[in-house]
């Protein structure tokens, strides 16, 4: 767990919905419908993702109020995945063809080709059997929902995790969500939510500044400056 281990990466999101429209009871109700369906040992599913308990990873939260700290609700996203290495799959498929007598030379030197439908059928069956004997990898990512501001902290900076979170969040809550970055953090979203006028023109008029550290003395001749440090 990243919070408990001391290492922490954050991505902040802002829900563009007034707080009064997202009561805690509603959050818990919607979350309950999006808990993960864990992948079992003999499961043939390759991937499953959903919400879970932040400490145990279980697909349920029996006491949501115990996970509220100050005005922040702590929960997690769990992603279970099974993956068969491509090279291993190719080797196993070739071995399966040999056992079934396909793609082998006969006494006349002719190779018995495998039709596309037969090949796909064998491949699907082999993949299913390999998935049943594969262990799933399990990943937990903590999420902090600030109930007093409707700001959400995701404890990961991975673009893949961010994409998974945004998709799952929209499916579960159907709320407008925006990633806070240098281009959006200065916007007064509270005024927007209240329906008040927001002047974005100052942001449109921002001009780049020079970070050049050129030595002006190199360009000085006879007490005058012929060239100035370039402005980019």
UniProtKB/TrEMBL annotation:
Q: What is this protein called?
A: Recombination-associated protein RdgC
User: For this chain's UniProt record, which GO biological process terms are given?
Assistant: DNA recombination
| Organism encoding this protein | Fluviispira multicolorata
């Amino acid at each position: 767990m990243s919070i408990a281990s001391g290492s922490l990466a954050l991505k902040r999101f802002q829900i563009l919905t007034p707080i009064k429209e997202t009561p805690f009871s509603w959050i818990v109700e919607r979350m309950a419908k999006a808990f993960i369906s864990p992948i079992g040992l003999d499961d043939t599913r390759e991937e499953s993702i959903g919400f879970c308990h932040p400490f145990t990873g279980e697909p349920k939260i029996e006491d949501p109020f115990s996970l509220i700290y100050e005005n922040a609700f702590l929960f997690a996203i769990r992603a279970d995945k099974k993956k068969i290495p491509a090279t291993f799959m190719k080797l196993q498929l070739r071995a399966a063809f040999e056992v079934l007598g396909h793609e082998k030379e006969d006494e006349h030197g002719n190779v018995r080709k495998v039709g596309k439908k037969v090949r796909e059928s064998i491949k699907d069956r082999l993949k299913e059997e390999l998935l049943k004997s594969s262990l799933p990898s399990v990943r937990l990512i903590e999420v902090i929902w600030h109930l007093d501001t409707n700001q959400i902290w995701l404890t990961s900076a991975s673009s893949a995790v961010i994409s998974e979170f945004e998709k799952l969040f929209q499916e579960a809550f159907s709320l407008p969500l925006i990633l806070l970055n240098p281009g959006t953090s200065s916007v007064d979203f509270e005024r927007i939510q209240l329906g008040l006028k927001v002047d974005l023109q100052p942001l449109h008029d921002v001009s780049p500044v020079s970070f050049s550290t050129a030595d002006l003395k190199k360009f000085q001749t006879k007490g005058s400056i012929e060239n100035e440090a370039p402005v980019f």
